[in-house]
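Sequence design from tokenized structure. All designs in this work follow the same two-part layout: the structure record, then the generated sequence. An example of the structure record is given first.
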């Protein structure tokens, strides 16, 4: 009883191991269906809050289906489509594009496949058993001052709709720049990947699925680096997306990134509301 009470009322760790494992297993293996699904990489799963989107769209069910270093290919396309509600009159897929997500290395989708191919017993434990004993979740003594926001590390809250509410201490909007310099060395945006993306957009729109795409916002410095090194040509991609039947969402405002790549939680909510309002206007206010 003493152990249970301590576990029940102790402060939360800045990033729960138990909740993280459940989050990813649920995201990959849940059979729930949705009206609108976001697909993309970590900038999507950390930067899109489905609740904020849903509020702008009359409460429809929204899923964030982003994965670390995720690429846009048939594996993900098939998975996303299978999660749309079969009998829904409103089916929407939103592609969160980043330059890295359109490179050959991203197409391996290692994170998604790692979770997809776990042992069935491991999946069951992560989803249903381990959360019952979350009071054993590892926690450092320094985590007890979580709400003072002074402990260095990744602060993560794992949401059932696929969003990871995130921030990092220390705040450093230039931290990711050197990483992406390496990522784009001999790993550029691929014309073949883009052609397959456009083909898929045509297929989806031919089935009555509404498709939107946008470049996930980050810092001005990161965008300049990506434009210089990755081979990403936004104007051409925008035109080809729209010629394929999709709608391109222009991002007009700037948002705050805690590491130069991912949006901090309040910016993520604000940006998500912007996307929801855009989609609402496009669907209902023509």
């Amino acid at each position: 009883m003493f152990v249970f009470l301590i576990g029940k009322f102790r402060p939360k760790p800045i990033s729960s191991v138990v909740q993280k494992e459940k989050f990813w297993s649920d995201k990959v293996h849940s059979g729930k269906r949705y009206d609108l699904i976001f697909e993309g990489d970590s900038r999507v799963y950390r930067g899109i809050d489905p609740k904020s989107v849903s509020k702008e769209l009359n409460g429809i069910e929204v899923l964030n289906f982003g994965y670390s270093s995720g690429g846009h290919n048939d594996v993900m396309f098939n998975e996303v489509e299978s999660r749309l509600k079969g009998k829904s009159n409103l089916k929407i897929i939103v592609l969160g594009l980043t330059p890295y997500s359109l490179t050959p290395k991203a197409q391996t989708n290692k994170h998604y496949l790692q979770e997809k191919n776990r042992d069935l017993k491991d999946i069951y434990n992560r989803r249903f058993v381990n959360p019952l004993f979350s009071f054993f979740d590892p926690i450092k003594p320094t985590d007890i001052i979580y709400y003072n926001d002074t402990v260095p590390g990744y602060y993560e809250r794992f949401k059932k709709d696929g969003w990871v509410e995130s921030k990092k201490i220390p705040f450093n909007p230039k931290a990711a720049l050197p990483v992406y310099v390496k990522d784009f060395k001999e790993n550029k945006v691929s014309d073949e990947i883009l052609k397959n993306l456009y083909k898929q957009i045509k297929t989806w729109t031919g089935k009555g699925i509404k498709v939107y795409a946008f470049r996930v916002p980050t810092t001005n410095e990161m965008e300049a680096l990506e434009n210089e090194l990755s081979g990403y040509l936004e104007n051409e991609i925008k035109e080809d997306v729209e010629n394929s039947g999709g709608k391109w969402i222009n991002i007009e405002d700037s948002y705050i990134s805690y590491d130069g790549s991912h949006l901090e939680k309040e910016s993520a909510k604000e940006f998500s509301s912007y996307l929801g309002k855009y989609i609402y206007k496009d669907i209902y206010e023509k």
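The longest strand covers residues 92-97. We note this feature because it recurs in several other targets discussed in the main text.
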